[in-house]
Amino acid sequence: MIKKFYILILLLGYISTSAQEYFPKNDGVHTTNTNYTAITNAKIYITPNQVIENATLLIKDGKVVSTGISVSIPKNAVIIDASNKTIYPSFIDIYSNFGLEKPQTAAKSNSPQYDSNREGFYWNDHIRSEQNAIEHFKYNQKEANNLRKAGFGVINTHIPDGIIRGTGTLIALTPNSGDASRILDNRSAQYYSTKKSLQSRQSYPTSLMGTMALIRQVHYDAEWYANGHSKVTDRTLEAYNTNKSLVQIIDAGSKVNALRFDKVGDEINTQFVIVGGGDEYERIDAIKETQATFIIPIDFPAAFDMEDPFIAEAANLSDLREWNQKPSNPKILAENNIKFTLTLKGLKEPKEFMPNLLKAIERGLDKTMALEALTTVPAEILGKQNQIGSLKDGAYANFLITSGDIFEKDVTLYENWVKGEKYEITSMTTKDIRGDYSISLAGNTYDLNVSGKMEKLKSTVKANEKTLGSKISFQDNWLNLTFSNIDTTKQNYVRLTSKISNINSIKGKAFLPNGNETTFYAKKIEKIDSISKDKKETKKDAPDFFPVNYPNEAYGFKTMPKQETILFKNATVWTNEQEGILNETDVLIKNGEIAKIGNNLNENNAIVVDATGKHLTSGIIDEHSHIATSAVNEAGQNASSEVTIEDVIDAEDVSIYRNLAGGVTSIQILHGSANPIGGRSAVIKLKWGETANNLIYTDSPKFIKFALGENVKQSNWGRHANIRFPQTRMGVEQVYIDYFTRAKEYETLKKSGKPYRKDLELETLVEILNEERFISCHSYVQSEINMLMKVADQFDFNINTFTHILEGYKLADKMKEHGVGGSTFSDWWAYKYEVNDAIPYNAAIMHNAGVTVAINSDDPEMSRRLNQEAAKSVKYGDVSEEDAWKFVTLNPAKLLHIDDRVGSIKVGKDADVVLWSHNPLSIYAKAEKTLIDGITYFDIERDKQLRREMKQEKNELTNMMLQAKNKGLKTVPVKKKEKQTFHCDTVEGHIH
Question: Fewest CB atoms within 10 Å of the CB: 278, 599, 805, 886?
Fold first, then answer.
């Protein structure tokens, strides 16, 4: 451990190597080299863009003194001749956990933990900004050796534990000097992640949206604390405020999370350096808009083993594309001028790094930019460009000596110098024996090819056009070669050995299978090739790169569709307005709106669609959905109004496309029902192929999910969970009363002009009190519905919608009086105890009482069949077809306060329309075209063509993977991915 050095650093500042000469040495004889070292006659990369031929690198005391052609070499200098060698700055990885053990995992328990288990720190155990990697760092020589062999000289390491993880430390991988000398910066950056601490079982947050809300709240709490308003000492917030001046690095892990956390960073005035997922190419324009710097892993996926056609069928097209496309990610980032560095993150061993990097270069990554990503860019990110990442005068002497271009497959890395300390990987005196030879031995001639890296050579021996089994070793210029006897019917071997001084003509001893000893001769053969040197050096044709789709999975667009002027002719138009259903009517779509409705319409340059015998309707709207999200419940507290589904919209959920195929154009993505006060909603349009932010309604109405019933009091979570308040229906009511009382007090303080701590949870509840946010409440039982309306009356606000509300028929008159709508199922009942009184006439009874009624899904399968769900009210409740159709169009639009834009076919409204093959309430009806804002996002004919194209693409990618396997490349078994289906009660990946 280096804790003793850390204390000295805090007291004295950085302690240089020379300042420690008085330290006692108890681990052997030590000498200090105070001389100059001059490495001469090398090609030197001072920076990736500044290269000098036949130059000298002069170093002293671990730093670069001078670099150039005419460097004056002091008399006492140690001179190393590096003729025909190349020198590069050594590599830097700024995202590592080198030298830090995985924190001990908290003891398991059947019961959840809601409160912090620490005193004097922040209320949430997963915020650990007080952690300092330097206090736990322990140098690992074996791991350091592997890193140096991979070309790395400096590592920025941190404790991989918690959402806010504290500070990292910048370490030089010196092979000999002590720990204090290795520390280049003991507080190099502050780290964040999406994962909770292993050291605590504290429940909150249980979701990604909870993590994002928590980071926001920490920021506001830290501001409050910094201004001296807190009455208690909080070491976590003190550290957070101290660390704000450092680089802020967040492990997002994917392009989607990169966009999400960049948005959070904008809100809290923090520009994160983002650790990506290697999939940035899929949304490169949005990634570029973040203006963030990225840390990019290059853990490219292996090909699937696709030999078994039945197993191969289970492979997802998106996974096949990933294998093909991901190695091009660095090139695409570079082409778009996105600043990035590379990391070992995700690789099992450092030795996997260079082969993957060479694959990226083969795909078009410029070598200069690759070198920048490993040297100058990471140095600039950390503000250490004058110390590391280059060989400028005064920088640390961190450099690599190679046999040539470091980004060539068979280049030899001889030495890795760190702070002027040499680490030898392959001796520079070692002869390069790679190539082709003709061996003369005992009257026979053998062909020998030696290939591979110098540290791991491979041999191929042939005689009479037959390949003989062989094994080669080469160390200290001693060659040992063993190969099978030319008579392969006998299991015996020929052994050759030689001390090589001349690689063009080798002479040595041979030991024959019969035990005799003789002499062998090997002559190097220079292959004659008619292809010019220039052509040899040209790049190989890059492998086929399948174009990125939007989204980059099944049914995505090759190019995003545009708004069109479309004229539907002779349709049966369901207006949902006073005009009712219009027969043989034309509708003009222009500039994203419904422009005209009438007969015999004409429009220049319009695409004319013959809708004779077909039905045109407004798009279906689902008031209660859980598709298109990466999380549904934040279950760590009994109120989670600080979280929002808008943070976790999943724009790549294939359910969006499937819903478009069912005529759905808008949905409300609701938080689940894990707590009485849930999270905020997202009201979106199903613009398949767009980014998450572009799905959200402009000037979006604000909603929040409340919940009643069995879920919130955890009666169906198991006995181990019965410790969180509330546990009864009385307790649920008290939660609402307590929180709204606090919200009123909070608003009073806020308006008073006195200092106040910004509380995201209470900010949302204040919006409800001020009628700036609407409540959609999960509900079943009559008594609870009455209770919540009374609470709303007590605090002078209204409930907007009771969703589910399967006992709505029992109190429809009271709902009408309160002004609340009902969004229900058509005929679900008896799936749990509290719905035993559900009846299929519920929607009709509420409708007849004057309640605004919608039919919702709460299910990804039902949501794409809502037209049929609406039809059930015609059957069970004798509701008219027009009114039943409004249950899934205009009425949910009213409940979501978007009926001024969608829900009916009216001039000036958004062109969110669907063309149906039959009456939309018919089970035979198919959505042939689904438009949103005048853009066709689903077309049944395009769908048929897509299915043919996807089959062909999958076949081509399968053949490419089979070829990869035949070439001996690594393959992995096919893994079928199953996307989790979210419902109201889905918590932490489990359904209770």
Answer: 599
Rounded distance, CA 245 to CA 271, Å?
11
List, as one string, the DSSP characters of 481-514: EEEE-SSTTS--EEEEEEE-S-TTEEEEEEE-TT
**In this structure, is the dihedral angle defined by the CA atoms of residues 65, 69, 70 and 73, taken in order, positive or negative?**
positive
Bridge partners, 669 (sequence order): 625, 682
Do residues 735 and 638 lie in contact, with contact meaning Cβ atoms separated by under 8 Å?
yes
List own/partner pairs for 174-179 with CB under 8 A and 24 or more apart: 174/418, 174/419, 174/421, 175/141, 175/144, 175/145, 175/148, 175/418, 175/421, 175/422, 175/423, 176/421, 177/17, 177/419, 177/421, 178/5, 178/20, 178/23, 179/2, 179/5, 179/137, 179/139
Structure tokens given for 988: 């932490």
Measured between alpha carbons, how far is 131 from 186 in angstroms, rounded to an integer?
Answer: 12
DSSP string, 126-151: TB-TT-BGGGT----HHHHHHHHHTT
Residues 6+ apart with CB under 8 A from 922: 871
DSSP string of 743-767, one letter each residue:
HHHHHHHHHHTS-----HHHHHHHH
Q: Are 43 and 87 in contact (CB under 8 A)?
A: yes
By DSSP bridging, strand 470-475 and strand 466-468 are unpaired
Q: Is 687 helix (H, G, I), strand (E, B) or coil?
A: coil
What pLDDT sits at residue 334?
98
The total number of residues written for the chain in this structure = 992
pTM passes above 0.85? yes
pLDDT of residue 68: 95
**What pLDDT does residue 16 have?**
39
Rounded (10°) CA dihedral 292, 293, 297, 303: 50
Two tokens at 89?
């700055």
For residue 533, the one-letter residue type is K
**Structure tokens, 309:** 């056609």
Answer for the pair 252, 261: CB distance below 8 angstroms, yes or no: yes
User: What are the chain's domains?
Assistant: 91-246 (no CATH), 435-526 (2.40.128.20), 561-619+903-951 (2.30.40.10), 620-719+771-900 (3.20.20.140)
Instruction: Give me the pLDDT at residue 991, please.
Output: 31
Measured distance CA(814)–CA(805) in Å, rounded? 13
Q: Measured between alpha carbons, how far is residue 608 from residues 45, 62, 569, 591 in Å?
A: 63, 76, 7, 15
- The residues facing 343 across adjacent strands are 297
What's the token pair of residue 574? 């369901």
